[in-house]
């Protein structure tokens, strides 16, 4: 994980975090400890994800992101972990989000239809849209 570190005392950018700032000599031990803690939690998250312990991995990533919200690697891993946490309910969760976020979401069925029902629903919607376009009611 890469951290963009700036000395809180002199605002000097630091390439490698050490116990003392190379510019002003300020004590950076606490900051170094936080960086080390974030690294350890990220590594623990990776180890847990490799063996399929998704909830444990998510907890470690939560700590990592609390310590460094800009950590792109941790965010990317968290996305993968969230996918694996409950893959059986993912389609239903996405359907629910679509119903909430789409402007016409309230017209969608409350539950995710089965594949054949969904295909019929989408075909009917496409026919209605084509009919509206032919009459000029929809841009």
Walk me through this protein's architecture.
This protein has 139 residues and is mostly helical. It folds into two domains: 1-85, Serine Threonine Protein Phosphatase 5, Tetratricopeptide repeat, CATH 1.25.40; 87-139, no CATH class. The protein has five helices and two strands. It has a two-stranded antiparallel ribbon. Helix 1 runs antiparallel to helix 2 and helix 2 packs antiparallel against helix 3. The longest helix is centred in the first third of the chain and has 22 residues, at 29-50. It is elongated and about 75 Å long.
Task: Give the tags.
3% strand; 139 residues; 2 domains; 2 strands; elongated; mainly alpha; two-stranded antiparallel sheet; Serine Threonine Protein Phosphatase 5, Tetratricopeptide repeat; 60% helix
**Could you give the count of β-strands?**
2
Q: Helix tally?
A: 5
Order of helices and strands: EEHHHHH
Name the structural class. Answer: mainly alpha
Shape: elongated
Main CATH class of the largest domain: Mainly Alpha
Please state the CA-atom Rg, rounded to the nearest Å: 25 Å
Secondary-structure map:
Layout: E1 5-6, E2 13-14, H1 29-50, H2 54-67, H3 72-85, H4 90-101, H5 115-135
Antiparallel strand pairs: 1-2
């Amino acid at each position: 994980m890469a951290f963009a570190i700036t000395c809180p005392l002199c605002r000097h950018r630091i390439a490698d975090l050490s116990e003392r700032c190379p510019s002003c000599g300020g004590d950076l031990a606490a900051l170094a400890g936080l960086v080390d803690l974030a690294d350890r939690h990220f590594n623990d998250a990776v180890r847990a994800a490799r063996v399929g312990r998704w909830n444990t991995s998510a907890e470690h990533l939560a700590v990592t992101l609390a310590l460094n919200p800009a950590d792109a690697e941790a965010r990317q891993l968290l996305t993968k972990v969230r996918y694996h946490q409950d893959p059986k309910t993912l389609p239903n969760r996405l359907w629910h989000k679509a119903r909430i976020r789409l402007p016409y979401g309230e017209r969608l069925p409350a539950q995710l239809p089965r594949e054949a029902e969904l295909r019929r629903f989408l075909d009917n919607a496409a026919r209605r849209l084509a009919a509206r376009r032919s009459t000029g009611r929809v841009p």
